[in-house]
Design goal:
The protein is α+β, with helices and mostly antiparallel strands. The protein has helices at about 1-20, 105-115, 120-140, 155-175, 190-265, 265-280, 300-310, 315-325, and strands at about 20-25, 30-35, 35-40, 45-50, 55-60, 65-70, 80, 90-105, 180-190, 285-290, 330-335. Strands 6, 7, 8 and 9 form a 4-stranded antiparallel beta sheet that branches. Residues about 315-338 have low confidence and may be disordered.
Length: about 350
């Protein structure tokens, strides 16, 4: 009997401790409520005590960084209107944003979040409405080139998003205890019904720019070709002039050398020149018909006379040579006529 009573007492103590003691994890905040009214906000992790239910209750909130995508994956796209300085007509664009937020690490902020939001779903719904409102107002005050432009000086994403984050933080931090860490644009596009027209206009603009670039390039290429052609003509003319001068000096030097050689022994020089002429003009199979007194044949005629004078008393060997046929080669026929 005493053992059963002791066991019941121990179980009662353990149950009381389980209902009076609680642990706050490092990834959460806790709000201690007594009869539904907040008593304290617990930020630091650890072991705490409270009265058992139904006197005291506990509400826990996640203190980690949370991400809100707006609109969500199952929600329709949201269109926003921006200014356009070029056309003077605003452009509709589809923007998807994501926001990194958390409950502010402050006891008063935690109580504000509990009283105004109560849970994460309500907080994200309210935060999404605030972001949509501020994004639409900010886009309406800025030109489209702030978001999409090929000029880095006009594209100011950082300033644009910082202004949205500051405005949203001002509205939700004190009122709801929500701290917005960052807001970024996840997707930027045109509405489906406007994409074809926008792309066609973009294509026409790029084709115009490409045509201008091609025309400018062709103009530069024509100038380069003309310059190169002119330089080529000048180089060739100068080279031809230098070549003619060198050729003239070479001809003059050759004439001088020939004149000096001819002046030293004119007869021997004439003899060499005649032999060179024979070598160049007479080869195997050549037939030349010339007069007997031709200057070109003077050496051959002289050689023939020498042979005729020495052959008046022919020897058997010479007779044998005369009777033998002439070797194949050049043949020169001299005539007495003109």
């Amino acid at each position: 009997m005493r053992t059963a009573t002791l066991l019941i007492f121990v179980i009662g103590i353990i149950g009381l401790a389980a209902t009076c003691l609680f642990i706050v994890d490092e990834t959460e905040y806790a709000v201690h409520l007594r009869f539904g009214h907040p008593v304290r906000s617990i930020i630091q992790p650890g072991l705490y005590a409270k009265y058992p239910w139904p006197v005291d209750t506990l509400v826990r909130f996640d203190n980690r960084l949370m991400v809100l995508e707006n609109p969500g994956p199952n929600e329709p796209d949201r269109e926003y209107l921006t200014q356009d300085e070029q056309s003077g007509i605003g452009k509709n664009i589809v923007v998807t944003t994501y926001a990194c937020w958390r409950i502010k690490r402050d006891e008063t902020a935690i109580l504000s979040f509990l009283e105004s939001m109560g849970d994460r779903a309500s907080a994200e719904a309210r935060l999404g409405d605030v972001i949509v409102a501020e994004l639409g107002a900010t886009l309406g005050r800025h030109d489209f080139s702030v978001l999409v432009s090929d000029d880095p000086d006009r594209r100011r994403w950082g300033e644009f998003l910082d202004s949205i984050r500051a405005s949203c933080s001002k509205r939700v931090e004190e009122a709801y205890g929500i701290e917005i860490v960052d807001i970024k644009i996840q997707r930027l596009n045109f509405p489906r019904q406007n994409r074809r027209n926008v792309f066609e206009r973009m294509r026409a603009e790029r084709e115009t720019i490409a045509a201008r670039y091609r025309a400018e390039g062709e103009e530069l290429a024509t100038g380069v070709r003309a310059t190169a052609e002119r330089q080529r003509e000048e180089i060739l003319a100068k080279a031809f002039e230098e070549a003619e001068q060198i050729r003239g000096r070479a001809d003059a030097e050759a004439a001088r050398i020939y004149a000096e050689a001819y002046g030293q022994d004119p007869e021997f020089y004439d003899f060499l020149r005649t032999l060179e002429a024979y070598e160049k003009t007479l080869n195997e199979g050549t037939v030349a018909v010339l007069s007997a007194d031709s200057h070109f044949l003077r050496l051959l005629n002289r050689q023939s006379k020498l042979r005729s004078s020495t052959s008046e008393t022919p020897s058997p060997a010479s007779t044998e040579r005369e009777d033998s046929p002439a070797p194949a080669g050049s043949m020169i026929k001299a005539t007495d006529g003109q």
